[in-house]
Model the fold of this input.
Amino acid sequence: MCGIIGYIGSRNAVDVLIEGLKRLEYRGYDSAGIAIIDNETGDVVRIRSVGKIKTLSEKLIGMNLSGNIGIGHTRWATHGPPTEENAHPHTSGPFTVVHNGIVENYAELKEWLINQGYSFESETDTEVLVKLAEYYSKNELLDERQAIMKALKDVKGSYAAVFLAKSDSRKLYGCKHESPLVAGISDDGVYVASDVPALLPFTRKIMYLEDGDFIELTPDGVQVFDLNGNAVQRRFEVVDMNPVAAEKGGFRHFMQKEIYEQPRALSDTIKPYLSMENYKVFLPNAAYLSDVISAITKIFFIACGTSFHAAMVGKYVFESFLNIPVEVDLASEFRYRVPVIDDKSLVIAISQSGETADTKSALSFAKSFGAHTCSIVNVVGSSLTRLSDAVVYTHAGPEIGVASTKAFVTQLAALILLGLFSYGILKDDKEDVYSYLAESLLQLPSVCEEVLRRSDSLRNWVHEISVAKSCLYLGRNILYPIALEGALKLKEISYIHAEGYAAGEMKHGPIALIDESMPVICLVQRGILAEKMRSNIEEVVARGGNVFVLADEAIKDSGFSESLAKKVIWLPSVHEFLSPIVFAIPLQLLAYYVAVERGTDVDQPRNLAKSVTVE
Ligand code: M6R
Done:
């Protein structure tokens, strides 16, 4: 993980780096640092601190640093704990570097460098990169560019890195292999960063770099090479992203804003793809997808974390709506089993960031079997979109809170759209089931407004849950993944232990956990399992569990026992496939309120990062 940025131009690099790093903080925030070439002395000045960018900015106050060329880093520790010594940038002789990724053979390279007389000041894998560059420049008399390129050729693993060289050349050097990197240009100079939002305050003219690219930045422009020094053609394009979308807009936290934005995010995702007139679905890459869907015998969904829960919902939808066999895999596990997969398989990766290393690797693994690939991604131009044969973008807008909310519901909407699209290809009779689902999907944004209004009553649950040591979330069928998602939300932002269970599994073990101190959050949908779910709840109540219920208002008349009825929040009744969205929203809000009550860092919970770019 980690976020990196570099700047060269006419502005004070310190301001540019700090502003950019604030926007990259979602990638890691346990320590940070910058290095600039000081305008007065011509020396490299390196300032690092443990903690967030705010701490680094405070450290910079009063230093009055000024320089027009510099690099910056925000870290999520992989090798070595978050200390100032391990914080980037790392330096050796004339070279200073910031790095995102993992140097897998660093131990071997480190040993070799130690044998050449080098000593190390940090425990990071990154330091070998900068020492190797120095070694080649000093001992093989290579120029800056060649020395860095040679160092990179020694490295196994993933990297996006930016090098600052203290010399008369006044250049920055960047490189990318399996970690994201973009360059930007404006009248004030040239920029390089881990992602586009970091550069939006300065420019919208962006160059997406590819694996193997090496860039040389001067105040006037960017030249791209491969690692052998051959020129490579890349172009700048103007991106259509709104910097204001990445602001809090009056909300206390990004997560809160993102929860309330969900009706808009859903509408922006559904409307461009689904005609209100004839319910026809228009997807990009439609011809390719149509050929593939007519020919495949199996679908695999791969994803991590919250996106994996969306994938689980996808299995229910695709199997029951389309009658296609579906497997769902955690991306981090997929590569390490022996899946039965071939060119009659479609592998659909789901990812908000499009940069999750496990998901990217799993997709590449699937491709090696000749499988067709499609990804459902939020971040435009991200790595996963470049790896996939087809892409369906969710239009959630930038999601800054580490806990995924609007990205999740738009992933679910995109899955339904893909389901409708596939139905149109595979089934002859389109009329009833198809139109009912399409119509329901179009109405979903306004239903979600109503869900948000009703969710205010959740505040009455907050205190009891916020003092609990552990919570259970129960659901069945298509709401089982939502029970898992509710539990994940609570754990990651409130640090309360929580587990999601398929309610029918309780009697096979977990019911032993139930006592008066255990809040149990139950999700009840109408339909064949409503009765069974109600029995599962009564079993928990009978053992003293403290039950809270979210239920479909369609079953209101059949009622709950009187004691339970006080703790029921009724949710709008929707198409079965859309109920995961309707139930997810109050669970996000519940986790949010509990986290606020407990005073945790809602947007940047401990030990996490928004984008997990290491395996
Ligand atoms: O960007 P991705 O959707 O690939 O990220 C996957 C997970 O890291 C992510 O969903 C994570 O679980 C969230 N923090 C959950 O809120």
The CA atoms of residues 86 and 122 lie 5 Å apart. Residues 258-447 form a domain with the Rossmann fold fold (CATH 3.40.50.10490). The pocket of 5-amino-5-deoxy-1-O-phosphono-D-mannitol is lined by residues 304-307, 351-353, 356, 359, 402-404, 488, 492, 611-612 (CB under 6 Å). The chain has 19 helices and 24 strands.
